[in-house]
Design brief:
Blueprint lengths: L1 E2 L5 E2 L7 H5 L9 H8 L9 H5 L6 H9 L3 H11 L3 H7 L11 H6 L5 H13 L16 E5 L3 H12 L3 E5 L8 H4 L10 H10 L4 E4 L7 H10 L2 E4 L5 E2 L12 E3 H9 L9 E2 L1 E5 L3 H12 L4 E5 L11 H9 L2 E4 L2 E9 L13 E12 L2 E12 L2 E4 L3 E2 L4 H4 L4 E2 L2 E2 L12 E3 L11 H21 L1
Parallel strand pairs: 1-13, 3-4, 3-6, 4-5, 6-20, 8-16, 10-11, 10-16, 11-12
Antiparallel strand pairs: 2-9, 7-17, 13-14, 14-15, 18-19
Amino acid sequence: MTVAHHPDIRPGRLAASDYATAFADASPRLTRSQALLEAERCLYCFDAPCATACPTSIDVPSFIKRIADDNLRGAARTILESNPLGGMCARVCPTENLCEAVCVRTTQEGKPVAIGRLQRHAVDALMESAQPHIFTRATATGKTVAVVGAGPAGLACAHTLARQGHDVALFDARPKTGGLNEYGLASYKTPDNFAQREVQWLLAIGGITVHHNWKLETTAQLDSLRRDFGAVFLGMGLSATRTLGVPGEHLKGVRNAVDFIAELRQCADLSTLPVGRRVVVIGGGMTAVDAAVQTRRLGSETVHMVYRRGPEGLSASQAEQEWAQTNGVRIHHWLAPQEIVGTLDLANPAAQDAGHVCAVRFARQTLVDGTLQATGETEVLQADMVLKAIGQQLGNPLFRQSGLTLNAGRIATDAEGQTSLAGVWAGGDCRAGGLDLTVAAVEHGKQSAHAIHAYLNRA
């Protein structure tokens, strides 16, 4: 279906001075006084549920006690021993669903200790100190490991292996190190180039050589890595975005949300980044929230975030959903995309998906015996830009061709990340059974590094 419409996608929707404010730190840092007062709220529980809830098993009461004692360096060491990307995780972890969700103070006062903000307070203080490096490498072992993917899992694996004295070659397809932390998170969560500052802190351990613009695409490449290195860790994340499978998906103005976020993150001047006046984001996860809020902050007048199930089905945390709504994003439930409607391209009217998106037609859904079914009702939302945030997949045939066992489209491993191929481990979003969280990817990388260390010592 095509209709008359004049798309409105352009840069500079805000005054030049407004962009810095719109993309400033969404969660300002605690002052020293605020941190001390918040740390005093901690009960320092024995067998603390917050530590158990942390995927990287940070000793939360211990680091908070050190903050209360004004020992920020000791607090940061406690954090980073368990989570070498503790600074980024403090910024982006859904703590309200993890450590803070089980805080005893919630039962007593209805408000948990602000564990994430305290973690950031300690790590930031260390990184900005005169001596930010608290770890040293063990004696060189002469063993080498290839790590493919410089995102959270790969960085955690590389840093842990380097601390153990191994030499690590870190390969990544992008021109900058950091993976999701650099390319996939909202700018207001990680301002002031924090992703790169954390990368530089991690690499300062030594023994890690980074190779940019290197993509694992063939079985011959994987065979070469297995032959040339003592072990291989795969932490590439998920490179392919799922498709909607509806008419009009390839119209102009329809984009993958992850690509839009990556472009925004690498844009030196946000006033030059085009954005639609009316935006529809399809999806219910944190990527959808990040895309929706950022388009709103770029100056979009109306932003709709649309999900096919009810509120309880959204993978974005309740805090993220409230954040979206606070920023003027309208969240719709029980709507599945049926057709992306476009304008007529007069120069080529017969072309499939000709023209530009102007609206999205949704079919209203309901649950019948646990299965989603259309009710027969439809709803149309006007749009100059549509961002797809419906999940990602490996999208690389070499994994099956290489003999790796897959599970639900991701690499199957044991609890330590060992794959079906000898000498090959995997972690992060590409690994089956994960939580699709930065902190979970870090734990994958760390645990695989310990397993690789034991494997190399047996060799």
